[in-house]
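To illustrate the input format used throughout this study, we show a single complete record. The first block contains the structure-token representation of the backbone; no residue identities are included at this stage. The design step must infer an amino acid for every position from geometry alone.
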């Protein structure tokens, strides 16, 4: 026979409630534990973020940003290091300070023979500037340790990504403001149709925009554009007019409109002086708030201060030209090639043209740009803060109030020094009238009665309780057996629940009955008899212990009803309770206490 499984007894309600409460507590503890663990993870993640924010390669990242804007915006750091190292070895070998194998010499000469002299000079200059901005690279470049070599590769990758990111960030920020920079007076005459149509797309810009097309038109075709703008725009769109890096755009020349002041017989007149290029240069190097000619309102240091830029060079101007050209174009994302136009070649052409200018022309061009950006032909002064540049120039000479205050303070200091060194020459200080000493305990001054301060300071009288009139002590008369007709019968007393014998004294005067002269002895005997009678009523025989509790209560109620009216005391009876309750019968303990007290008496 198959054995039957014993059924487990069903849990009771208390057990189920205990189980549910324990499960709830366990769930709460798990939830709180999860919360605590998540908080700890969050704090650990924050600490990791803080630790990661302190990048050990920050020196090289800052150098990469400076290289983008001030040295070479298309710089390849790995190539600059390789070619720069080969050029340095070539110089040392020519000077006789380096001993090499024939294979090493052949490899170096083979690499350098592919480069023109101008390209060599550019790489050598970039290598020199790279080591100036990031001197920590010297230890990695000269070391043959494999760990340092791998670390150098990481640094190079970070620097190249920073160069690309800086280029893209500047172009993205410039796109937001380019609509103001291409208008001669953006407050009164903005560009129409507007550049920012709210869609976020840029397909309507560049040569597809009737105003921006003139900015991008090659300067050699500007006369044709003036005669028939619509037909020239169609030729630009169809590719009949080529937009190449050699055909400089019209926005590089000055004029209320691009190319207005262009003279084909004097191309240098107004070249690199366009108002859009000037605003873009200020936007990048001195801050967007200075682009339209106002003073800087920025709370952070501008790029010129961060990069230690003191004067304008050819690389700065070329970087601004590239950013203007890309900001006007219809491209949404940065790219080096826009149709037939190549930004790398355009950048190199601008730099090479400025560097190839005669010394006087180049110096004059750079002075003009220093004046536009830093309000000084000599460039930005590193010793001065930005606030000092905008301050008055006569702050240190004698014509300013600040200079006179400093002179007076210096004279006082010198006079104080001479007085301390020569005590004979010291003059007595002038007598100064001192106020009378204040009394320790001055007499109190009472304000006049009409003033409100008198009412505040006058103490109020403390209320005192009224005296309760008490009747004169008179001998208590003997209670007659029958009630007299002259005096009214007192109301029946209701026993209190708390104490059947005592009453609380009243707060109002007691009406006493007219006293009658009687002998004291009968009164005492009668009061003693009444107290004996009350005590006898409260006491019960010992045989009642065997009776049930209900019989005892019934007998106590009957005795309470049949009890005679107690003698009138001098204390007024307590008013009856609002809610009448049944008086509890005295227990045996209270009855025995009362009998013991009576016996003692």
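Output of the design step:
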């Amino acid at each position: 026979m198959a054995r039957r499984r014993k059924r487990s007894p069903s849990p009771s309600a208390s057990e189920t409630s205990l189980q549910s409460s324990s499960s709830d507590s366990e769930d709460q503890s798990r939830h709180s534990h999860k919360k605590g663990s998540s908080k700890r993870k969050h704090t650990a993640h924050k600490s990791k973020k803080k630790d990661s924010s302190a990048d050990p390669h920050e020196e090289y990242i800052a150098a990469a940003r400076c290289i983008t804007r001030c040295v070479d915006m298309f710089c390849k750091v790995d190539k600059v290091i390789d070619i720069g190292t080969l050029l340095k070895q070539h110089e040392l070998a020519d000077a006789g300070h380096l001993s090499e194998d024939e294979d090493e010499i052949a490899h170096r000469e083979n690499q350098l023979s592919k480069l023109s002299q101008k390209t060599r000079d550019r790489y050598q200059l970039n290598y020199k500037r790279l080591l100036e901005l990031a001197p920590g690279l010297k230890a990695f470049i000269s070391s043959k340790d494999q760990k340092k070599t791998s670390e150098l590769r990481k640094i190079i990758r970070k620097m190249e990504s920073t160069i690309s990111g800086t280029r893209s960030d500047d172009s993205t920020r410039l796109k937001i403001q380019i609509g103001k920079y291409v208008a001669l007076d953006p407050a009164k005459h903005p560009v129409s149709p507007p550049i920012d149509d709210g869609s976020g797309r840029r397909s309507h810009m560049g040569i597809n925009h009737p105003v921006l097309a003139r900015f991008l038109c090659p300067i050699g075709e500007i006369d044709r554009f003036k005669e028939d703008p619509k037909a020239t725009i169609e030729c630009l769109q169809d590719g009949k007019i080529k937009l190449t890096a050699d055909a400089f755009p019209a926005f590089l020349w000055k004029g209320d409109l691009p190319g207005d002041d262009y003279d084909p017989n004097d191309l240098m007149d107004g070249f690199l002086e366009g108002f859009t290029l000037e605003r873009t240069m200020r936007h990048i190097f001195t801050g967007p708030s200075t682009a339209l000619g106002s003073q800087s309102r920025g709370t952070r240091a501008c790029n010129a201060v961060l990069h230690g830029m003191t004067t304008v060079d050819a690389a700065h101007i070329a970087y601004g030209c590239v950013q203007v050209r890309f900001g006007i174009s219809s491209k949404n994302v940065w790219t080096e090639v826009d149709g037939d136009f190549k930004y790398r070649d355009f950048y190199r052409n601008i730099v090479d043209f400025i560097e190839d200018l005669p010394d006087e022309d180049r110096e004059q061009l750079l002075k003009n740009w220093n004046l536009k950006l830093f309000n000084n032909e000599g460039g930005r002064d590193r010793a001065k803060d930005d606030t000092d540049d905008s301050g008055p120039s006569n702050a240190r000479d004698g014509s300013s109030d600040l200079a006179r205050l400093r002179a007076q303070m210096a004279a006082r200091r010198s006079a104080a020094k001479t007085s301390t060194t020569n005590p004979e020459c010291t003059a007595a200080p002038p007598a100064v009238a001192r106020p009378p000493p204040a009394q320790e305990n001055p007499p109190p001054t009472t304000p006049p009665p009409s003033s409100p301060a008198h009412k505040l300071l006058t103490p109020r009288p403390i209320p005192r309780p009224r005296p309760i009139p008490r009747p004169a002590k008179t001998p208590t008369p003997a209670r007659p057996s029958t009630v007299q007709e002259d005096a009214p019968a007192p109301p029946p007393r209701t026993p209190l629940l708390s104490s059947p014998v005592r009453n609380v004294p009243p707060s109002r005067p007691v009406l006493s009955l007219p006293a009658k002269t009687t002998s004291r002895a009968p009164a005492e005997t009668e009061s003693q008899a009444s107290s004996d009678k009350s005590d006898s009523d409260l006491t019960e025989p010992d045989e009642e212990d065997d009776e049930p509790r209900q019989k005892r209560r019934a007998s106590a109620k009957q005795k309470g009803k049949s009890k005679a009216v107690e003698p009138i005391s001098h204390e007024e009876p307590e008013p009856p309770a609002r809610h009448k309750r049944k008086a509890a019968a005295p227990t045996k303990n209270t009855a025995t206490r009362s009998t013991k007290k009576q016996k003692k008496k």
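Structural context for interpreting the output: Residues 58-163 form one domain. The mean pLDDT is 75.
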